[in-house]
Design a protein that fits this description.
Blueprint: H1 2-38, H2 42-48, H3 50-78, H4 83-120, H5 127-137, H6 140-164, H7 169-190, H8 199-221, H9 226-232, H10 239-242
Helix pairs in contact: 1-3, 1-8, 2-3, 2-4, 3-4, 4-5, 4-6, 6-7, 7-8
Length: 244
């Protein structure tokens, strides 16, 4: 019974973290990062809207930390299905992905002091100032790297969910089917076939974005399947004992 309650708590916590991360990411992308990226002079925009830029950086941190703690919370459950895959998922989606988000937040925060220095010097609208501002907010390279890490970790996660059946398998299959589309979107953008802000990219990433929201809501509302929770609650045998 205690194991069932622990698994229920893990599912609810992970679901809440999913929703927090998703909401923070959407707010940052469309409310903060969008206007900065679309500005003709990003440094001038940062100088005039420093509070908005700082808020965007905080939203990136909230998103990154919330999503990074999902594998931490679920690791005790998933390791009983396949410890190697669970460690891989924890490493990629917990550690590496969090580092990428921290770098993105730092780049946003740097816009404010750099804009002050540029204004006191040659000006934000100078060729050097424009190039520097665009470089700081140009997240295309980091988005490409993050997408690969995200998809590899996601494939491990949904494989674990499929094998464990702690959530309905159709949710796991949906995730596994949507990951190639998500990865293809950013690979095509890397090779300039489509734009990073294009409707084509948004269309390709939408299936996985919706799936993760469904998964988060499911974990909050329904938790993990009780019969499977009982099965996964068995202690993991040491490798030395398993080989006998």
């Amino acid at each position: 019974m205690n194991s069932t309650r622990e698994h229920r708590a893990a599912a609810t916590t992970a679901g809440v973290l999913y929703l927090i991360g998703t909401v923070a990411g959407v707010l940052c992308k469309f409310v903060v990062q969008g206007p900065v990226r679309d500005a003709d002079d990003p440094l001038a925009y940062a100088a005039a809207h420093s509070n908005v830029v700082v808020t965007g950086a905080l939203l990136v941190l909230v998103m990154g930390l919330a999503l990074a703690f999902v594998p931490v919370v679920l690791f005790p459950v998933l390791r009983r299905v396949d410890e190697v895959l669970a460690i891989g998922y924890l490493t990629l989606r917990g550690a590496v992905e969090a580092v990428c988000y921290v770098i993105s937040a730092i780049a946003l925060l740097l816009l404010v002091p750099v804009s002050t220095v540029a204004s006191a010097g040659s000006g934000t609208a100078s060729p050097a100032g424009l190039r520097l501002g665009i470089l700081l907010i140009d997240s295309d390279a980091s988005s490409a790297v993050l997408s690969v890490v995200f998809c590899l970790g996601g494939a491990m996660f949904y494989a674990l969910l499929y094998r464990s059946r702690i959530v309905p398998r159709w949710i796991a299959v949906w995730g596994l089917a949507a990951i190639p589309l998500y990865l293809a979107a950013f690979l095509l953008a890397m090779y300039a076939v489509i734009g990073y802000d294009s409707s084509a990219l948004n269309l390709l990433v939408m299936p996985l974005a919706v799936q993760e929201m469904v998964l988060g809501i499911w974990m909050i509302a329904r938790g993990f399947r009780p019969t499977v929770v009982a099965a996964t609650a068995e202690p993991v045998r040491p490798l030395a004992d398993a080989s006998r």
